Amino acid sequence: NKMRFLSALLIAIVVQSAPLSLQGVFTESDSSSSTGVASSSTGAASSSTAMASSSSTAVASSSSSTGGSLSSSSSSTGSASSSPTKAPTASPTEAPTASPTGPSSSPTKAPTASPTAPTPQPTPAGPASAHIMVKGKYMFNSETGAQFFFKGAVYLPVPKGGTATTDYYVDVGQNRATWTKDIKNFKELGINAVRIRHLDSTKDHSTFMKDMQSAGIYVLVDIDPEQQFNSDPPVYNMDLWSDVQQLIDEFTKYSNTLAFVAFQEMITVGKKLKVAPYAKALIRDMKRYMRDIAGVRQVPVTFASASMKEGVYSYSNIINYYSCGPQWEAADIAGMNMQWWDHGSDPDKSGYTVLWQNLKPYSKPFIFTEFSTVTSKNNNGKCPCFERTFAQVKNMFDPQGGGKCLTGGLVFEYSDESENNPNDPTDISVNRGLVQNDATRTRKPDFTILSLKYRFTNYPPGLNMSTYTPSLSPPPCPTGGAWDSIADLPPAPFDASSSTAATGGPTPAPGGLSKGEIIALGVGGGVVGLCVVGCFIGYLRKKKSNEDYDAF
């Protein structure tokens, strides 16, 4: 009886451990999606793909039914797949809704929702202590369940006089005297989010993130792989991945990390499509690392696309490409650098009206990773720029405009990137800030104008996560022309045999062995133990048989 009990116990250990070790390795979740952002003339289609969810994730997926696909007049859409990697186990699924066109697949059941909460206010009411989740088309506060919106700014201050070859890119999280002044301005602007580029992956940012959290400000963290991806051919190796991994390890620790911005404008007319698979592979590997290797909170991953209206490189094709296919390799949020609204424009002239119409059937949150342009007639580098009116802010959050499609926007940009450049009279890049990049952060007229627009523009009526049921599916992958010949996604650098042999793959999460290694050791030990017990039981049976024979 003791041997039977021991055998049963070890078998139970193996049975309990094996599914965990196999999760994310043998289960394929390769369904194509068929709905997304679409123009009013596009047809309906339906399907869905699942994203893994857990108690520690910031991304939750849910069931889907029907919707349209984002398209432009010069592009066509259809289903396409583009991933050689295997998928993690998805959440329990339910029967898919029948679809008039396109493939279908099983959607994931919605995660347990948080308690109900009132509609969020236009300005942050307190510390940014709760992390923000993605559910369907919207984002929600993980503690209150309230729908989350944001008004923010691109935050890239550099020292006055910095140049591209010296200290042009400086980590904003390393100078407390500077960011303390900036936080005061952020509060007066009424913002609750900033997007930061060019962070040093080797530095500690805990004080910076804590101060931002206390001020009620969430942070979008850029990965910045552009230098490697823009080379010919694109480079995706362990040198790049090491920086990516360090940024993930650093910023998943903070509840006010809103999202990772995987890359900036990777598909343009000049770059064409050759870099697109590398950019999407980075999204896949970031999500996989957070979920399966580091075992940390799954911070949503987004991207910053260009805003071309038509053609092969249109925003609709770009957004669909990074959002389509198996959802474990797709972006969680779509982002676009919006440059359509010029001085004196309106929703119709700018194209905003058409954009909101096209985004209605899109199944994921949509944000402006940048918005607002500055046009000027430079005078030897001294900018007599017009003051921006920021009239688009009202339309962005209007329930009859972008209120049902847009989660938030980040004005470009908070501060001038350097002092005026008298050697290049065509360069207006230094004059796009709301404040000057000087010791006192001198405010420009744009600061006051935007502050009024932000503060007097209310968010649209918010939903509650517990009562919201997503009904849209991810979009189909773009097809036609160059999109038909786009390459498959490259393998993760830590999966390539040469890299793995040299590096041992991704390093474990801080604190010891990775979750995958612990599971593997547990399963291996269980199997060995079971074999030992089986051999011992066989020996006892043979011994007993010999004893019985001798007695006879």
Description of the structure:
This protein is α/β, with parallel strands linked by helices and 552 residues long. It has 13 helices and 15 strands. The protein has helices at residues 2-22, 176-189, 206-214, 226-229, 238-251, 276-293, 315-323, 347-350, 352-359, 392-397, 445-455, 497-503, 515-551; strands at 44-45, 59-60, 67-68, 76-77, 132-135, 138-141, 150-154, 193-196, 218-222, 257-264, 301-304, 334-338, 366-371, 406-411, 478-479. Strands 11-10-9-8-7-14-13-12 form an eight-stranded parallel beta sheet. Strands 2-5-6 form a three-stranded mixed beta sheet, with no helix packed on it. Strands 1-3 form a two-stranded antiparallel ribbon. Helix 1 (2-22) runs antiparallel to helix 13 (515-551). The chain is globular, with a radius of gyration of 26 Å.
Keywords for this entry:
29% helix, globular, 552 residues, 13 helices, alpha/beta
Secondary-structure element string: HEEEEEEEHEHEHHEHEHEHHEHEHEHH
Q: How far do the termini sit from each other? A: 25 Å
Poorly predicted ranges = 14-34, 38-58, 61-68, 73-125, 160-168, 376-381, 420-426, 497-515
Number of strands: 15
Average pLDDT number:
74
Q: What shape does the CA trace take?
A: globular
Main beta sheet: 8 strands, parallel
Strand share of the residues?
A: 5-15%
| Radius of gyration (Å) | 26 Å
Give the count of helical stretches: 13
Structural class of the secondary structure composition? alpha/beta
Strand ordering within the main sheet: 11-10-9-8-7-14-13-12
Please give the share of residues in helix. Answer: 25-40%
